Amino acid sequence: MPVAAQPLPLSDGFVDLITSGAPVGLAVSGGGDSVALLHLVAAMGGNIRVASVDHGLRPEAADECAMVARLCHRYGIAHQTLRWTGWNGSGNLQDNARRARYALLVEWATAAGIADIALGHTADDQAETIVMALARGAGVDGLSGMAAMTMKAGVCFHRPLLHTTRTDLRSYLAAAGHEWCDDPSNDDPAYERIRIRQAAAMLTGLGLTPQALGQVARHMATAAQALDQRTAELAAGYFVRQHGDMLITVDLRALSAEEARRLVLAAMGWVNHGLSAPRRDEQNRLLHHLRQKQATTLAGCRFSFDGPVLRISREWAAVQGHVTETTQLWDGRWRLSGPHAPDLQIRALGAGIDLCGDWRDTGLPHLSLQATPAIWRAGRLISAPLAKFGADWSAQIVAE
């Protein structure tokens, strides 16, 4: 008969969220970390829902999701399995799976009216993340590791176990007689994170324990917060929004390299709402070009100069394949209002600008306007709100 297990602590802020009665989602894969999270949270009561993601990459994943479903049933907690079918065999598998997992969880939470989701990341996961960042030569942001809370598409993801080790969680599960599943890919040295995990004993012997590396992450997070505050101050003074473009009115050479880098990245994130930060070497090359007043492109953004002013606009090549219904958000930030109809679509204006005789009156460059949203019907341009073509339609940026 299992002995009583000593409950493990969850972060104070997350405990407050659970006891508030707000609906909270848990992402539970069936692995030891997330299963432990489920037991810990279930013991507190609260308004809990659970989702498991089956990536469709292993036949065992369906059984693992079913195990989680049975566990939730015993607790009287609603459970749903989310299935990913988008893997086409190209690109980085782990990165694609991670992006898909977050997207599925956001979709599930949004549909269920859930604003908060908890993940089972541990102190060991944090330590592995820091070592991976060190291997890449990361800066302050990379060495900050995983944040205790992260916003994605309006949903707040919590990591309430970042101060708890994987060993402690499994000891808790074993003492309580709880079952869990081990994913065999967690032993596959083909993945960088697994190679680092397998070297954990050696790192611990050098003093690089999960606790020590976690402390590094917290120190770096504090430094990153100060840098973010400085970036916000610079943005308030030197950002000018012009429709979908961002203008930077300060000479980047007057700023430190770190200030200039962060300011440009912030502007890029506004122009390209789905931006993943480019590699540091790409960032360095970009800043070199910009400090030399040279036009260039990077990560779906186009950089040009209006005299001393740096203009960052969406690159047409990055959006020419974006097609949505007129009622949907376009390019992650544009909402169009007008006489919607099923046979209308939103696409980039592109070559349609040749039909817009008054486009010069907008004050926007030709290339900027090509990347703005337009209404099309079967290849015929109906309206280009930002290029002063067609009536009855307007376009607003709704994702800030």
Describe the structure.
The protein has 400 residues and is of the alpha+beta class. The chain has three domains: 12-213, Rossmann fold (3-Layer(aba) Sandwich); 243-314, no CATH class; 319-397, no CATH class. Helices cover 40% and strands 18% of the residues. The protein contains 14 helices and 17 strands. The strands form four sheets. A six-stranded mixed β-sheet has the order 3-2-1-4-6-5, with helices on both faces. The chain has a five-stranded antiparallel β-sheet with strand order 7-8-11-10-9. Helix 2 links the parallel strand 1 (24-27) and strand 2 (48-54). It is globular, with a radius of gyration of 24 Å.
List the helices and strands and how they pair.
Layout: H1 12-19, E1 24-27, H2 32-42, E2 48-54, H3 60-75, E3 78-83, H4 93-112, E4 116-118, H5 123-135, H6 140-143, E5 149-152, E6 155-158, H7 166-176, H8 192-198, H9 200-205, H10 210-238, E7 239-242, E8 245-248, H11 257-271, H12 280-291, E9 296-298, E10 301-306, E11 309-314, H13 316-319, E12 324-325, E13 334-337, E14 345-348, H14 366-370, E15 373-377, E16 380-383, E17 394-397
Parallel strand pairs: 1-2, 1-4, 2-3, 4-6
Antiparallel strand pairs: 5-6, 7-8, 8-11, 9-10, 10-11, 12-14, 13-17, 14-15, 15-16
- List low-confidence stretches: none
Look at the structure and give the CATH class of the largest domain: Alpha Beta
- What coarse outline follows from CA principal-axis ratios? globular
In which range does the helix fraction lie?
40-55%
Helical/strand content category: alpha+beta
Strand fraction: 15-25%
Number of domains: 3
Which strands sit side by side, in order, in the main sheet? Answer: 3-2-1-4-6-5
Supply Rg: 24 Å
What is the tally of helical segments?
14
CATH evolutionary superfamily of the largest domain: HUPs
Number of strands: 17
- What is the CATH topology classification name of the largest domain? Rossmann fold
Average pLDDT taken over every residue: 92
| Biggest sheet features | 6 strands, mixed
The oligomerization state is single chain
Proper CATH architecture of the largest domain: 3-Layer(aba) Sandwich
Question: Cα distance, first to last residue?
Answer: 55 Å
